[in-house]
Amino acid sequence: MNILMIASECVPYVKVGGLADVVGTLPKYLKKQGHDVRIIIPKYKTIDGVKYNLETLPYRLRVKVGKEEESFRLKTCMLDGDIPVYFIENMRYFNRLGIYGDEAGIGYGDNRERYIFFSKAAIESVKALMFRPDIVHCHDWHTGIIPAYLKTTHADDGFFWRTSSIYTIHNIAFQGSFDAETTVPMAGFLWEDYKSDKLEFYNTFNFMKAGLAYADIISTVSPTYANEIQTPAAGNGMEVVLQTRKDDVYGILNGIDYSYWNPQTDKNLAANYSKNDFSGKILCKKDLQSRCGFNLSENTFVVGCVSRFDNQKGFDLIMDVIRKTQHLDIQFAVLGSGDRYIRDAMLYLKSIYPSKVNVFNDYNEALAHQIYAGSDAFLMPSLFEPCGLSQIIALAYGAVPIVNKTGGLADTIKDFTSSSSSGNGFVFNLYTGENLFDKINTAYNIFRNKNLWSKVVKNAFASNFSWDNSVTEYENMYNTALNRRIAYTIYK
Length: 492
Known about the structure:
about 500 residues, alpha/beta, Rossmann fold, 2 domains, nine-stranded mixed sheet, six-stranded parallel sheet, about 40% helix, about 20% strand
């Protein structure tokens, strides 16, 4: 199959969240299966053209945003040497220091225009490149209008006659909702398409709703999350839309690249180690304690956290539990960036508990690896979590996850108890500070029993969430979408 990924992020070029990891990793596994996979993302100012050896292609293309024409150039490079990545370059929309907003975390006021432009430019780009996709795989709200374009403005475009669309929800909380009066004409849709079963969503134009209404198949990033978002508790208003298409909703668990997230070969670590030889992990723990300014003790319970500073990630519970565990021999190493109020509150805890809490306010890839490797346990008490990759990475490094039972966390982490030998982490079932404290206390007491702790660590190491396990599910989903599109075209 010819598969085109269109997204707003992709590692290693630009990353804000887990979306980037999926877009930068899944294509490698699809390529191994013999598919021709290509990626289109914006050329943000932060993407270093020299570092990635970007080549400018001989196209100068134009699309209309409202009544205005916007020109753009295409740049390209190869991901892993054999996957073409195309970058849409436009100074007006993407020549900024931020990705979605400014340094204070405030979203850009023209994000609507930016991603209308990007969506239209992606469609024009693939035509200029003469790459006829069997599958256009769109990710999150920024590309939600692309499936709608393929069935409205481009419905009679022979170039896309056999093209099916997949729309993947990475986080249903971010939907791209704007006033309809200006957005419908700006995007180039007809008012006859602005109906409750199509583009309209509670008197607004909603990018995600467009994707859900028009895509041939809808997917999300874990089986549990696929069910959760069809309920009022987690659907963020989209549950009714999703329920009407419940037979078209797939939940496929994200994976990680074990050739990259591998403590046996990771060059960021003070020492390498494996599931058969933990000695290097002990050195990594001491290295992390030293970086944090903590007392160096193998018997101290080190809890790591690598996360966005966001209410979704459970920082209200984390701050509560840090205070409640000060009587215990526990050290917390936290790396994150994002919401300035959470950042300031975490830095305050660091200031009053300097011997037990260190907070690194930035994203540092090497330090993230060092926290995974140096921690005994990994804290991820998310209020909701579509999939989560951090808990899977933690398992690969023998850092035992402590999580809330939600979304992908429920699909990947099973509770360990003294009477059980099968769990690979510690799971609490109701989002409260008391429940998190009880679960950390359980983990702490099991940690002090070296025989029991070695069992849960071995279970963590034995967990396998490779993309190899998920790529077949993606292939099956793509084939279903393709067959559905062919049938739709024949009987239209």
